[in-house]
Design a protein that fits this description.
The structure holds two protein chains of two kinds. Chain A is α/β, with parallel strands linked by helices. Chain A is built from ten helices and twelve strands. In chain A, strands 1, 2, 3, 4, 7, 8, 9, 10, 11 and 12 form a ten-stranded mixed beta sheet that branches. In chain A, strand 2, helix 4 and strand 3 form a beta-alpha-beta unit. By secondary structure, chain B is an alpha/beta fold. Chain B has eleven helices and 21 strands. Classes of the chains: A alpha/beta, B alpha/beta.
C-alpha cells in the first residue's frame, strides 16, 4: 500500500469516527435531523465564486474596538455572509460548505496573544457554522503548533466528536513533497488529508519582507518549511504556496480578523503600532482581501506620517504575482474591487 | 550536506547498499539514548495526546512520514509517552554567532545568508530562533540520526581508510538543494523529527564505545548546528576521537575558524562553478563556498570535495573543467575531487540518474587538467574508486563501494615507488 492510499485510509477512518460521534451529539442537541447526509460526488459541489466585480464585505462595529464579544461577532459574521452570498446567513453558510465536508479553519498565532486571530471571532465563526447545521466534528481549528494556539488564547480540543482545536505539530505533515512554481514543501496533514474546505482567518500585519502578512501569507503556517521560503524570493513563494492544490483547491472563504491591526514594525507584535480597528472582512478572493487590507493599513500609516506600504522596498508585490495568469488567485487591482460596507 | 553518498541509517538505499545500523542487543538501546521528550500530559477531557492520535489514526500518518530514523536507535523514544506524533520538544541554547540589530531583532552571523530575524521568528535554517531579542539554537545536542558509517561513505578517501565514523545529524539546513537526498532531515524543523538529547561528551563517548575513530557531522548541514559540532569536536579530542565535517561550506569565516582547531578533515559538497546554479537550485551563493575552500587551504585542513553531477544542470564539460581548473589553481593538484552520481530525488525526480559515461568524462577532464586524485562516486565497482599513485600509477588503495579491498600504503607512501600520498593516514 503506498503512502497516499494509506493516508487516505486514515482519513476515511477519521471521517467514520467523527461521523458516528456527531450523529449522536447532533441528534441529541436537535441541531440536525438525520446526521451525516449520504456522500455526494465531490465534483458536483459548486465552489462559491465572486461573480462579476471582485468584492469584499467589510463589517464594522463600534463595540469591537474595545472588547468584542462572541455574540456581537456572530451577528457581524451573519451580516457579512448575507451580504457576501445574497442569502440568509444560514443559507449562506450552507452554500459555502456541505455538511459532509471537513472544514479546516486556519488561524494565525505566531505573534502571540496580542496579535493573533481572535479566539472570540473563531468561536463566533464555529458557532455560525454549527448553527447552520455543520457537524462540530467536521470543524478543525489549526495553526502550526498547539502551544501557539494555546498561548494565543485558544482552548485546545481533542474531542473527536466535537470541534477540534489542535496544531499541525500534533499530527504532522504530509511527507509527499508538493512542488508549485519554485516552492517545494510539505503541507499540514490537516489540510492535505483531512480537510475538504478551508476557512482562512488571517490577521493584518505589516511585514518587513513582504509588506503585509495577511490572507495569502497566512498559509505559511500550513507548511513545514516557511523559513526556507523567505529567501531568495518571498513574494513569489507566497503566491506559489497559496496556489498549491491543498490550499487553492480547498480555500472557500477568507474571514479577515481586523479587530486589531499592526500597521508598522511587523510581523512581530509592536504595541505602539498595533491598533484596535474593530472590523472583520469577508471574501472568497484572498488577493482582493489582502489588497483592500493593504489600503486599510496605508490609511493608518498615512495618519501616522508613514509612507505607503507600496513605497517601501518590502512592498506587497506578492499580490500582483498571485493575481497573474500563472497563479490566478484573485484580483490585486484595488480599483476593480467592490467593497461592501456593513455596520452592525 | 546531503547530496552525495551520505545517507542516514534509514535512508532509501541503505538496504541496497548493505549499510548497517546498530543491531539489536547493542548498548545503543541502553539509557544513554534516552530521549528528553516532554509530554504525557493529559488533556482537559482526560484524553492523552497519544490516546487521541491513536484514536484518530493520524499517528500512523506521522510514523510513515519519518523514514529517516532508525527504529533500533530510537526504540526508547518511540516507547515514551507523549511521542505518538514522533516529534520532539525544542531544546533551546543560546547561539554563539549573532548580533542584536535593534527593536528586538537579531542578525545571524553564522552563515552568509546573515538572516535578520524578528522576535519569535526563525532564520532560513529553521533551527535558530529569536526569543525576545536573543538568538537561540534549537538543535544543540538534538541528535536526529546517528550511525557508525565507513568513512568512505562520507566520502573521505584520504582520511583513515577503512575506519568508521560515528555519523550524526540534526534537523535543518542553510540551503535548500533540489537534489538533496536527505531532505526529510535537512528540510525539516527540529520539532518535526524525533531526536535524542546527547551532550558533546556523551557523543564522544558513544563514538569511542562504538569503535569509531571519528565523529562525522553529516547527513544534514553541520553548519546549522555548529555550536554543537564545535563543542563535540573538542570533547572528542579529549577522548581521542577525531572529528570530520561534511558540509556545503556555506559558513562565515569566524565560526569556521572558531571550530577548526578541533576538526581533522572537511569534505565540501561543491554544487557547481556557477552563481546561477547556487541561486536557482540550492538557495545559496557560490562565492562564500569558494572562500571557505580557500580558508581551509590556508589553515592546512585536510579537505576533499564532492561534486554531484546532475544531468543537464551542472554536467557540461565546460563547467566540469572550470571546477577542476579552479581546484588545481587555488587548492592544488592533491585535493581529492569526487564526481558523484545523481539519483532522482526530492524536487528533481523528473531527471534521470547520471549516466556512467558522463561521470567517466568528468573523471577524464579532472585527470587531463592535472588533478592527482579524481574519483567517481555512487558507481560501485568503478575503477575510478581506487587511489592511484601519481608517481608510478599503481593502485595504492582499492575500493568497492564503501569497502577498502586493498591498502598498499606504507606510512603514507606508495609501497611500490615510495611517493608520498597526501592525506591523514594514521
Amino acid at each position: 500500500m503506498d503512502r497516499r492510499k494509506f493516508l487516505k485510509g486514515i482519513s476515511l477512518g477519521l471521517l467514520s469516527l467523527s461521523g458516528c460521534s456527531r450523529v449522536g451529539r447532533a441528534t441529541a442537541a436537535g441541531e440536525t435531523a438525520a446526521g451525516v447526509p449520504p456522500a455526494e460526488p465531490r465534483d458536483t459541489f459548486a465552489k462559491p465564486q465572486a461573480s462579476g466585480k471582485p468584492r469584499v464585505v467589510l463589517v464594522t462595529s463600534q463595540d469591537w474596538k474595545s472588547s468584542p464579544e462572541e455574540s456581537s461577532l456572530r451577528r457581524g459574521l451573519a451580516a457579512g455572509m448575507e451580504a457576501l452570498a445574497g442569502a440568509s446567513a444560514a443559507d449562506a453558510w450552507r452554500q459555502f460548505f456541505r455538511p459532509d465536508e471537513n472544514i479546516a479553519v486556519k488561524v494565525n498565532c505566531i505573534a502571540g496573544p496580542s496579535l493573533s486571530s481572535s479566539p472570540a471571532l473563531v468561536r463566533a465563526l464555529v458557532g455560525e457554522l454549527t448553527a447552520a447545521g455543520h457537524p462540530p466534528a467536521r470543524i478543525w481549528v489549526y495553526d502550526r503548533t498547539s502551544a501557539e494556539l494555546e498561548e494565543a488564547g485558544f482552548e485546545l480540543s481533542r474531542d473527536s466528536g466535537g470541534v477540534k482545536c489542535l496544531g499541525t505539530d500534533e499530527v504532522g505533515y504530509d511527507r509527499e513533497v508538493t512542488v508549485t512554481g519554485d516552492v517545494g514543501t510539505w503541507f499540514s496533514l490537516i489540510i492535505s488529508q483531512w480537510a475538504d474546505a478551508i476557512v482562512n482567518v488571517p490577521i493584518a500585519k505589516d511585514h518587513d519582507l513582504s509588506g503585509i502578512s495577511g490572507a495569502l501569507k497566512n498559509h505559511f503556517g500550513s507548511i513545514s518549511n516557511p523559513n526556507k521560503l523567505h529567501y531568495p524570493d518571498l513574494s513569489a513563494a507566497i503566491a506559489d504556496v497559496a496556489a498549491a492544490a491543498p490550499i487553492a483547491g480547498k480555500q472557500r472563504l477568507v474571514v479577515y480578523d481586523l479587530l486589531r491591526v499592526c500597521y508598522d514594525g511587523g510581523p512581530a507584535y509592536k504595541p505602539a503600532t498595533t491598533k484596535a480597528y474593530g472590523a472583520i472582512l469577508l471574501s472568497t478572493d484572498p488577493v482582493a482581501a489582502d489588497t483592500v487590507v493593504v489600503s486599510i493599513l496605508d490609511e493608518l500609516r498615512a495618519g501616522e506620517g508613514l509612507p505607503s506600504l507600496w513605497k517601501r522596498e518590502s512592498n506587497p508585490s506578492h499580490l500582483s504575482i498571485a493575481a497573474d495568469a500563472t497563479h490566478s488567485l484573485g484580483c490585486a487591482d484595488r480599483s476593480k474591487i467592490y467593497v461592501e460596507r456593513v455596520k452592525v | 550536506m546531503a547530496e552525495a553518498d551520505d545517507l542516514p541509517p534509514e535512508g532509501r538505499d541503505s538496504e541496497a547498499e548493505g549499510r548497517q545500523g546498530p543491531g539489536p542487543g547493542t548498548d545503543w538501546q541502553s539509557g544513554l539514548w534516552e530521549p528528553a521528550f516532554a509530554g504525557g500530559a493529559e488533556a482537559a477531557d482526560g484524553l492523552s495526546r497519544r490516546h487521541f492520535l491513536r484514536q484518530l489514526g493520524l499517528a500512523a500518518g506521522c510514523l510513515c512520514g519519518l523514514p529517516n530514523l532508525s527504529e533500533k536507535l530510537f526504540c526508547a523514544a518511540t516507547a515514551t509517552p507523549g511521542t505518538a506524533s514522533g516529534k520532539s520538544p525544542l531544546r533551546m541554547a543560546r547561539a554563539s554567532w549573532w548580533k542584536p540589530i535593534g527593536d528586538e531583532r537579531v542578525q545571524c552571523e553564522l552563515c552568509p545568508k546573515e538572516c535578520k530575524v524578528g522576535n519569535r521568528e526563525r532564520g532560513f535554517c529553521g533551527v535558530r530562533e529569536n526569543r525576545g531579542g536573543v538568538y537561540y539554537t534549537l538543535v544543540y545536542g538534538s541528535v536526529a540520526a546517528a550511525n557508525p558509517d565507513p568513512i568512505e561513505k562520507k566520502p573521505f578517501f584520504h582520511f583513515l581508510p577503512g575506519s568508521r565514523a560515528f555519523s550524526i545529524a540534526t534537523a535543518g539546513c542553510n540551503m535548500n538543494c533540489r537534489a538533496c537526498q536527505n531532505w526529510e532531515l535537512s528540510q525539516s524543523r527540529p520539532e518535526q523529527v524525533p531526536s535524542v538529547s546527547l551532550s558533546p561528551a556523551e557523543l564522544a563517548l558513544r563514538a569511542r564505545q562504538a569503535g569509531c575513530e571519528s565523529i562525522a557531522y553529516t547527513y544534514n548541514e553541520p553548519v546549522i548546528y555548529w555550536e554543537y559540532a564545535r563543542d563535540a569536536a573538542a570533547a572528542g579530542r579529549k577522548q581521542g576521537v577525531r572529528s570530520v565535517v561534511v558540509s556545503n561550506g556555506y559558513i562565515k569565516p569566524q565560526p569556521l575558524l572558531d571550530a577548526l582547531p578541533n576538526l581533522d578533515a572537511v569534505k565540501i559538497d561543491f554544487k557547481a562553478m556557477s552563481e546561477d546554479f547556487y541561486r536557482r537550485y540550492c538557495s545559496g551563493t557560490l562565492k562564500p563556498v569558494l572562500d571557505t575552500l580557500l580558508l581551509l587551504k590556508r589553515k592546512g585542513m585536510w579537505t576533499e570535495i564532492v561534486y554531484l553531477v546532475i544531468p543537464t544542470l551542472n554536467d557540461s564539460a565546460a563547467e566540469i573543467e572550470a571546477t577542476c581548473r579552479w581546484v588545481r589553481d587555488n587548492l592544488g593538484r592533491d585535493v581529492p575531487l569526487h564526481f558523484s552520481r545523481f539519483y532522482p530525488q526530492y524536487q528533481l525526480k523528473h531527471l534521470p540518474p547520471t549516466p556512467v559515461a558522463t561521470l567517466e568524462r568528468c573523471y577524464k577532464i579532472g585527470r587531463q587538467v592535472g588533478l592527482h586524485y579524481v574519483y567517481v562516486g555512487n558507481v560501485p565497482g568503478s575503477a575510478a574508486e581506487h587511489t592511484y599513485c601519481p608517481g608510478c600509477g599503481r593502485a595504492v588503495i582499492e575500493r568497492r563501494g564503501f569497502t577498502v579491498i586493498a591498502n598498499r600504503l606504507r606510512d603514507g607512501r606508495c609501497s611500490n615507488c615510495g611517493k608520498a600520498i597526501p592525506g591523514v593516514w594514521k
